Amino acid sequence: MRISRLLGGLLLCAAVVTALDCSLGAQTQPSKMLAATPPMGWNSWNHFADKVDDKTIRAAADALVSSGMRDAGYVYVNIDDTWQGTRDADGTIRANAKFPDMKALADYVHSKGLKLGIYSSPGAKTCAGFEGSLGHEEQDARTYAAWGVDYLKYDLCSYTKELRERAGRDPVKNQQVMEEVYLKMHDALAKTGRPIVLSLCQYGWQAVWRWGAHVGGNLWRTTGDIEDKYASMAAIGFGQAGLSKYAGPGHWNDPDMLEVGNGGMNANEYRTHMTLWAMLAAPLLAGNDLAAMTPETLSILTNHDVIAIDQDALGRQGDRVAAEGPLEVWARPLAGGGTAIAIFNRWTMPLTMTFDLKDAGIHGSVHLEDLWAKKDLGSFKGSYTTALVPPHGVILLRAQ
Ligand code: GLA
C-alpha cells in the first residue's frame, strides 16, 4: 500500500512536472490553468522605479489598449516595489499616498480587459525598504484577493537576513528555507480562491529552476536584475543555455523583464532581446514608458510572429544548439511540427553563418521564413547560410 502510494506520487510528479527534479519532494504543483503560456504584460520597475503611482498605472493601462499591445497579448499591468504604506491596527496592509484606492485601480485595470499585478517580499522589508509580508502572509494574500489582484511578484529582499539567521551559511538549508517561504505564500494565495499568478524573485539562487515549480511558482527569476545595456541583456539571455528542460506550461524560467524601448540599446540589440526572450519562452513584461514609445519600439514589442513563438502552445523552451565563436544558433520546437531557429551575432561586426539544419532537429527538406524581415526564403536541405547578421543582431527563422 505504502509502496504503491509512493509510486503513484512519483508517477504524478513525472507526469506533471516533466523533466523536473522531483527528488526534493513535490509539495505542490503550480496550476496549469494559470500561466499556461508565459505571462505577458508590463511592469513599472525598469522605467519608473520608485516614481510609480496610481496615475502611472492608469496611463500604462490606457497605453496598452491604445497601442494595440493588449490585443497582441500584453495583459498584466504590474505594480512593482514602493506602493506599500503602513499596516492598520489589525495588521492589514495599506497602500501609501501614491495609491489612494487600490480596489478602484484594480477595477479600472479590469475594465480595460487587463489584469493587475502587485509586489511584496517574504521579508520584513522589500528591496526598496517598504513593508514586506513577513508574519502577514495569509492576511496580505486576502487583501490582494479583495482588491482584485491577479499576479504577485514575491521578491526575497530582506528575507536574506532571516536566511542568514535561520540557516547560517549552509546553502542546503537556505534552499529549504526559501522553499518554505515561497510555499507559504503559494498556499496563502490558493486559500483565497482567487487565481493569482505567483512570480518567484530570488535571483536564481540555489538553482531555483529545479524547485520553483514544486513550491507553486508559475515563474521564477533565474538571474539578478537586468540593466538596459547590451552586455547585461546578453549575459542574462545567453546565460540561460541549458535551462530549457525546467520550463513548461504553468511554470517558466524568468530571465527578468524587458528593457526594449528604454534607450540603452539600439534597434538590432532590442530585436535580439525580444527574440532571445521569445526563444526562451520567457515572460514578456515590457518595462518601458508605454505612453511615450516610438513606432520602432512598438513594432519590436508587437511583432506578431515573434510573440507567437514566445506563446507557442507546446510550451517547450528553446536552447542553444550550435555555436561558432560569437555566433550562436538557438532552436525551439513549436506546436504543429515547426521549429523556430534564431542565429545571433554577439560580435560588433556583421557576420554570416552556415549551420547544419540537423543541429536544429531538422532532417530532410524544410521551408524557411525570416520573421523580422517578413520574407519567405524558400526550401532548404542539409544546411543553411544566413545573410549578414548585424552586429549584436539576430536572424529569426521559422522552419516548417
Ligand atoms: C529587486 C528585483 C527587481 C525590483 C526591485 C524593486 O531588485 O529583482 O526586479 O523588483 O527589487 O525594489
Commentary on this structure:
The protein is of the alpha/beta class and 400 residues long. Helix content is 31%, strand content 21%. It has twelve helices and 18 strands. It has helices at residues 2-16, 45-48, 54-66, 69-72, 102-111, 137-147, 159-167, 171-192, 230-238, 267-279, 295-301, 304-310; strands spanning 40-43, 76-78, 84-87, 93-95, 115-120, 151-155, 197-201, 219-221, 252-254, 284-286, 319-324, 327-333, 339-345, 354-356, 365-370, 375-381, 383-385, 394-399. Helix 10 packs parallel to helix 11. The relative contact order is 0.12. The structure holds alpha-D-galactopyranose.
Characterize the largest beta sheet: strand count, sense, and whether it forms a barrel.
8 strands, parallel
Q: Going across the major beta sheet, what is the strand order?
A: 9-8-7-6-5-2-1-10
Strand content: 15-25%
Order of SSEs, N→C? HEHHHEEEHEHEHHEEHEHEHHEEEEEEEE
**Attached small molecules:** alpha-D-galactopyranose
Task: List how many beta strands DSSP finds.
Answer: 18
Distance between the termini: 49 Å
Query: What general form does the structure show?
Result: globular
Q: Tell me the radius of gyration.
A: 21 Å
Helicity level, as a percent range? 25-40%
Structural class: alpha/beta
Low-pLDDT residue intervals, each spanning 5 or more residues = 1-27
Number of helices: 12
Task: State the gist of this model.
With 400 residues, the chain is an alpha/beta fold. 31% of the residues lie in helices and 21% in strands. The protein has helices spanning 2-16, 45-48, 54-66, 69-72, 102-111, 137-147, 159-167, 171-192, 230-238, 267-279, 295-301, 304-310, and strands at residues 40-43, 76-78, 84-87, 93-95, 115-120, 151-155, 197-201, 219-221, 252-254, 284-286, 319-324, 327-333, 339-345, 354-356, 365-370, 375-381, 383-385, 394-399.
